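User: My advisor asked me to double-check a structure prediction for Ribosome biogenesis protein BMS1/TSR1 C-terminal domain-containing protein before group meeting. I don't want to rely on an old file, so could you generate it fresh from this sequence?
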Amino acid sequence: IPLPPEYARIFSFHNYKATQKYVLEKARDIGLFNPVVASGRLEHESKMSVLHFGIKKHKSYQFPIKGKESLVFHVGFRQFAARPIFSVDSINSNQHKMEKFLHEGRFAIASVYAPISFPPSPLIALKMGNGEVGYPAVAASGSLKSIDPEKIILKKIVLTGVSKLKATVRYMFHDPRDVSHFKPVEIWTKKGVRGNIKESVGTHGTMKCTFNHSVQQHDTVCMSLFKRVCPKWPEHRFPILLDARVT
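Assistant: Sure, here is a fresh prediction for Ribosome biogenesis protein BMS1/TSR1 C-terminal domain-containing protein from the sequence you gave:
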């Protein structure tokens, strides 16, 4: 599956932890950690990449937070617009299952296109209000965990077909080559019957299948697949400045 065109605009570290250690040691050597009034950026922090935050919905926020919904991220002293996708934090795997919403009471991973920062950076996610006033509300909080464009986030999709006869399925595929490609994948029906693809029939994607129980003629045959998803590039980098109202 080709990567989205936004990946041509981002930066990828060969080893971001080693780079973070080098950048912080370099900043310490030249005295950037002495108290100052102005704030600055470290090396690489002007570049864009894919950042992954550990995030939890704030208990005071009562509205649902959907994936790719526009939020305002405050990371350290920086503020930017983001449209995160949420996923389960799989510690022992580089493949993470996408979640449609940020669920209340548990941590998730929020992946966004954003300017590079080095962990651990605190996060406060704001949701702009609706109406004429438009006051922002604290929607979630967390911290930066990693910078990794190679992390794979998978979205579950379900292909469906119609059981024409007891073991013949059509309309799931329209090409016999697709039937051959997905032959190893298990199929199931909405009535709870499971089975496997046996062979392709004809030239229009019809296939013969075997099931562990009898299948009703009008039952729907399904196949669960996963596809890689990526964050949504924000329409504006600084929505608060664009939406500011002078009183």
